[in-house]
Amino acid sequence: MALLVQKYGGTSVGTVEKILGVAQKIKAFREKGDDLVIVVSAMSGETNRMLALANSITAEPSIREMDVLLTTGEQTTIALLSMALNDAGCPAVSYTGGQVKILTDSSHGKARIREIDESNIKADLAAGKVVVVAGFQGVDEQGNITTLGRGGSDTTGVALAAALKADECQIYTDVDGVYTTDPRVVTNARRMEKVTFEEMLEMASLGSKVLQIRAVEFAGKYNVPLRVLHSVKEGPGTLITVEDNSQMEQPIISGIAFNRDEAKLTILGVPDIPGVASRILGPISAINVEVDMIVQNVGQDNTTDFTFTVNRTEYDKAKKALDLVCIDLGAREVIGDNSIVKVSIVGVGMRSHAGVASKMFDTLARESINILMISTSEIKISVVVDEKYLELAVRSLHTEFDLDADA
Ligand code: ADP
Ligand code: ASP
Ligand code: MG
Q1: What pLDDT was estimated at residue 351?
Q2: Which residues of 79-97 are buried (b: 16+ CB within 10 A; e: fewer)?
């Protein structure tokens, strides 16, 4: 008998039939004797539908009201699933994030969990009930409803598993595990048996949306055993775990991540004097735009060109701010490109192998893919390329680094 926290994503509860199917699955676990806390997302498409509704009312909806609106998606699912469970003879009770008391800070839209009151959940489990909790939401000190960012139900699942010291946090979704890359782009991608927290965190940060970044961070920090599984098909899924140093031969590259939401901005002919980077990036951070990769070139005439990437949705906002910086600094001009993507190779095995970067660059060169920017860390190499090369870049690197599934 185990205590399991199971999270079912939007596509897994996207229709009444699917909710009924999930209820049967939960009932079967219960009959085996497991204690279960279930976290659910909104039915697929619901969160986007509500975002569109808000935007049809106002161009700048209040972030507080946005959270009141969006959390109703998850609230609908917990009620429906609990009804289905009770109907199937499996006693269940639902809770919103606020009812559990998942206490967060007050950053609407991207709140962080501070504390979880597990007393109600423990009492219900002791009474033999399945506890169904709304993902993606919490409540701040003042009682305002907050949300944890897109994909945040994963984080609710992991945080509850940590608070309850669950035996495993199981993320049920529409794929049967974590693959070497998104199986929608590379059909012969391979499911991984295991992946380290470190690699998974890197993959999630670099665009693999199978798990929310904060969920992986949380699981790593509190050492929560985390597994990604298919919500319908049986199988072992993928375990996210600590690095196994007993394995002599680590694969050099474990996976390939990509992010389509990228854009880059360049300010040309900036006087090359101390303090320039801060005068360029200060105004960008002041308007809350996050900067990712940064490259600075030194020109011959005591001027420099400065390029950085931002999320594509923030391109226009960042460009406007940079146009003002350009005038202020007496720089030549600002140019931008919002049709770029980032492709990254990830692997802890990279630490002990030289030549990985040149193999990556050779592969892209052979496909005539021009690299626009490069950034590296101990366990990843990222390149920025034109978006038209995304699929070609990912597929050729997947083959070159021996990640293709056996035919
Ligand atoms: P859910 O609604 O269950 O939260 P998501 O859509 O957030 O599901 O995440 C599952 C999707 O993540 C898959 O359908 C898949 O296309 C995508 N994905 C991206 N990268 C990977 C990867 N490396 N392995 C598995 N799935 C991936
Ligand atoms: N419903 C939210 C979203 O679509 C949270 C989640 O599904 O995890 O982002
Ligand atoms: Mg998700």
Answers
A1: 85
A2: ebbbebbeeeebebbbbbb
Which ligand lies nearest to the CA atom of residue 9 in the structure?
1
CB 184 within 8 A of CB 244: no
Is any atom of ligand 1 closer than 6 Å to the C-beta of 173? yes
Q: Is the CB of 14 under 6 A from ligand 1?
A: no
Averages of pLDDT over runs of 10 residues in the chain (407 residues) are 96 98 97 97 98 95 97 98 98 98 96 97 98 98 97 98 97 97 96 94 95 96 96 96 69 93 96 90 93 87 93 95 95 96 94 89 97 94 98 97 89
255-400: CATH topology: VC0802-like (3.30.2130)
H/E stretch holding 47 reads: helix 46-57
DSSP code at position 191: B
Q: What is the torsion angle, in degrees rounded to the nearest 10, for the CA atoms of residue 392, residue 395, residue 397 and residue 398?
A: 170
The DSSP output letter for 179 is B
Ligand 1 atom 7: residue of nearest CA: 210
> Pairing mode, if any, of strands 35-40 and 3-8?
parallel
State whether the beta carbon of 306 lies less than 6 angstroms from ligand 1: no
Spatial CB neighbours of 168, under 8 Å, sequence gap ≥ 6: 2, 4, 5, 161, 225, 226, 227
pTM given for the model: 0.93
385 exposed, middle or buried (CB, 10 Å; 0-12, 13-18, 19+)?
Answer: buried
All CATH 3.40.1160.10 domain ranges of the chain, comma separated, are: 3-174
Q: How far is CA 227 from the centre of its chain?
A: 15
The predicted structure's pLDDT at residue 406? 85
Q: According to the model, what pLDDT value does residue 298 have? A: 78
> How many angstroms separate the CA atoms of 53 and 94, rounded?
26
175 lines ligand 1 (CB under 6 A): yes
Q: Which fold has domain 3-174?
A: Carbamate kinase (3.40.1160)
Tell me, what DSSP letter sits at residue 348? G
Ligand nearest to the CA of 40: 2
* All CATH 3.30.2130.10 domain ranges in the chain, comma separated: 255-400
Strand partners, 341: 385
